[in-house]
Amino acid sequence: SVTGAMLRLVLRGASALAGRSHPKLVAGAAEAARQQPGKIPFLQIVREYARPVRKKKEAIPSHLDDLPDTMLKKNYANVSAVDKVDDDVRRILSLEMASQREKVKMKKEQLAAKVRRSPNDCGSAEVQVAYLTAMILTLKEHLHMHPKDKVNLTCMMIATDRRTVLLKYLRNTRYDTFENTCKQLGIEYSPPPQYRRKITRRAAVKKEFRAMIYKEKQKLRALERLKQMEKQDEGIKEQVQPKEETPS
């Protein structure tokens, strides 16, 4: 039959391509042909062999690397009974065996301790900036390895906008605190422009119309320059060529 002839032809091609080094290719083609007689199995197997290998992105240095492994977790940092426990229990309660979320909590407290006004300060503008900075750095590392994660990208953009608003407030009210916060947290603040014009529909249409007129003027100028160059070339040719003497 036609199906049997096609199967034999495919198996011959598979055996010729595979050779002795890949005997599983022929067996896989025969098995796929029995399961799906209406399709060509050889192409499917070749596609599986020819799948591109995706290179994994190299991990960037984490902002959590400066946290020592011997540091206790947030819930056990102020407990006095932790000093009397064994070393194994202390390792369990330390950051050595902590999760990513617990490490981020400790990083938030570490950054907030640099800028807070008093030991009990948990809600001032500079402390909120420290919390948002730790969150933004964590999301940046995650998005470097997973760039298609749109949800966390949106969360990072919201946190960045919120931090910008707080920094603008500090800059307008207490400039010395603003400078100290940016210095301690390593933030490069770029101020907004002094004048912002609200773009209306009329202004956008006018801008597009002006751009269209400018392009048309450029085309006309290019044509005029081309005509001038042609005239200059003709004049040079007339000067170079000797004039023919008219017969008397």
TrEMBL record:
<dbReference type="GO" id="GO:0032543">
    <property type="term" value="P:mitochondrial translation"/>
</dbReference>
<dbReference type="InterPro" id="IPR000589">
    <property type="entry name" value="Ribosomal_uS15"/>
</dbReference>
<keyword id="KW-0687">Ribonucleoprotein</keyword>
<comment type="similarity">
    <text>Belongs to the universal ribosomal protein uS15 family.</text>
</comment>
<dbReference type="InterPro" id="IPR052137">
    <property type="entry name" value="uS15_ribosomal"/>
</dbReference>
<keyword id="KW-0809">Transit peptide</keyword>
<dbReference type="GO" id="GO:0003735">
    <property type="term" value="F:structural constituent of ribosome"/>
</dbReference>
<dbReference type="InterPro" id="IPR009068">
    <property type="entry name" value="uS15_NS1_RNA-bd_sf"/>
</dbReference>
<dbReference type="InterPro" id="IPR005290">
    <property type="entry name" value="Ribosomal_uS15_bac-type"/>
</dbReference>
<dbReference type="Pfam" id="PF00312">
    <property type="entry name" value="Ribosomal_S15"/>
</dbReference>
<dbReference type="GO" id="GO:0005763">
    <property type="term" value="C:mitochondrial small ribosomal subunit"/>
</dbReference>
<dbReference type="GO" id="GO:0003723">
    <property type="term" value="F:RNA binding"/>
</dbReference>
<keyword id="KW-0496">Mitochondrion</keyword>
<protein>
    <recommendedName>
        <fullName>Small ribosomal subunit protein uS15m</fullName>
    </recommendedName>
</protein>
<keyword id="KW-0689">Ribosomal protein</keyword>
